[in-house]
Automatic annotation (TrEMBL):
EC class name: isomerase
UniProt cross-references to Pfam families, sorted A to Z: TruB_C, TruB_C_2, TruB_N
Gene Ontology MF annotations: tRNA pseudouridine(55) synthase activity
Keyword Isomerase applies: yes
Protein's name according to its UniProt entry: tRNA pseudouridine synthase B
Key words, A-Z: Isomerase, tRNA processing
EC number: 5.4.99.25
Residues forming the catalytic site: 45
Amino acid sequence: MTQKHTTPDGLVIVDKPSGFTSHDVVAKMRGIARTRRVGHAGTLDPMATGVLVLGVERATKLLGHLALTEKEYLGTIRLGQNTLTDDAEGELTSSTDASAVTRDAVAAGVAKLSGDIMQVPSKVSAIKIDGVRSYKRAREGEEFDIPARPVTVSSFSVHDVREAVADDGTPVLDLVVSVVCSSGTYIRALARDLGAGLGVGGHLTALRRTRVGPYKLDSAKTLDQLQRELTVMPVAEAATAAFPRWDVDGRRAGLLTNGVRLEMPEEYAGSGAVAVFGPDDRFLALVEEQRGKAKSLAVFG
């Protein structure tokens, strides 16, 4: 008798290769894990590499909540050239000698793009405008505006400034940067806006995501590694890493899983999603506090 293959519930932290869309990685993981139930928490552009969080089986219910967490990146911004997509994948639209841009001017430009800011996403992005993806409108040559959105750039640091000459002979500056930001922040829009503020244009030439919430690059595996050995972070461990933890006794665990809204301790008020654990360390649910009671976001137990 053949043994039925069972896919474990949990998260898979992938080190995404360049040239793959997030959907490409999901499709690959469906083959590796032998299940259709795979999703991702927040997209990563095809050019970018690094941490992409996938959910397998029941862990897909965590993904919408994980997508909202803080992210960290390492990247390279080229000052002196604009592109259609605000990154190296797009067609060059203008070149300006950037050799006269000073380190002080760069620091001032970076400071303006730090903290709570309003950002206009790149036109070649997955944002929907009246139900249609922005990149689809852009590719069809449509003229349209994307409204600015509030984002938080907790940290925007320049680690190195390198003088270079672009392929078209323009003197440019390449900045090696790191960024810690809220969900929904576009690093290529930061590159575009930094270049615009300095009067020379700018775009992103390299990007590596090093962290999504608590999940870092050191725990990420390449697709080749996962093909050889599927490494899944159990759903309970993933929830403990990402959310505040609330332990309840057996009686309250039974009430919660039967749909009763439990009274929540005051310490969890305003803390967003909370992971509830019952006896024997069993992960029961993700809840959030609403008028002092636990509103279920996703039930696992």
